[in-house]
Amino acid sequence: MTDSHMVIIGGRSGVGKSTVAFALHDLLVERDVHHAVIEGDALDLAHPAPWREGLAQRNLRSVWANYREVGYRRLIYTNTVSVLEEEALVAAVGGAPQVTSVLLRGSDTTVADRLGRRESGESLERHLTRSARAALFLDDGAGVHVHRIDTDGRDPEDIAEELAVIVDW
Predict the structure, then answer these.
(1) Phi and psi dihedrals of 37, rounded to 5?
(2) In terms of C-beta density within 10 A (0-12 exposed, 13-18 middle, 19 or more buried), how is residue 148 classed?
(3) Which of 71, 73, 93, 119 could lock onto 4 through a cystine, CB 3.0 to 4.6 A?
(4) Does residue 48 have a cis bond before it (omega within 30 degrees)?
(5) Contact, 119 vs 153, CB < 8 A?
(6) Is residue 87 within a helix (H) or strand (E), and if so which, with residue range?
(7) C-beta separation of 76 from 36 below 8 A
(8) Which Pfam family is one of this chain's hits (predicted)?
(9) How confident is the model at residue 127 (pLDDT cuts 50, 70, 90)?
(10) What sign results for the dihedral spanned by CA atoms 37, 43, 47, 53?
(11) What Rg, from alpha-carbon coordinates, does the chain have?
(12) Strand ordering across the sheet containing 147-150
């Protein structure tokens, strides 16, 4: 029996994960649907990167426990590779949550435009290269149960509406 519902939003850099999550948040606020949004990239944003220590999952466990303690049962979680890490994320949140995984996809042109608004110079080039590799890796690695949503030419609010239908919130 599930006691919570976790929506996992993954995708390459620049595809709009955070923007879509925030648009879904706004939509759910408008509908008075209780939920929490956790930006996975912020859970282990440090240098050197502490991913080998599993810090993101440990921090997720702590943060979600605090939300749970005060009554939250719906979680929107974003992170680039999250759709490949469902088991670890479920273990981190505990219990037996219903899980809906979504892979946002975008063309190289669209992603380059979006990344170009927040990065420049060598940083932009690094992000573009990593993002292109991640797109292939994520699409190949994500299971058939993962919903795939193309973001090219779409407003975040439109994608949020689609997500709300998929998760039935």
Answers:
(1) -120, 130
(2) middle
(3) 73
(4) yes
(5) no
(6) helix 86-93
(7) yes
(8) APS_kinase
(9) confident
(10) negative
(11) 16
(12) 36-39, 74-78, 5-11, 98-105, 147-150
**What does the block give as tokens for 40?**
């996975």
Task: Could you list the beta-strand ranges (E) of 71-137.
Answer: 74-78, 98-105
What is the maximum span of the chain, computed from C-alpha positions, in angstroms? 50
Provide CATH code, domain 5-167.
3.40.50.300
Tokens coding 22: 């925030």
Exposure string of 92-128, with b = 16+ CB inside 10 Å and e = fewer, is bbeeebebbbbbbbbeeebbbebbeeebeeeebeebb
The reply to whether the predicted model has a pTM over 0.90 is yes
Which amino acid type is present at position 119?
E
Q: Are strands 98-105 and 147-150 parallel, antiparallel or unpaired?
A: parallel
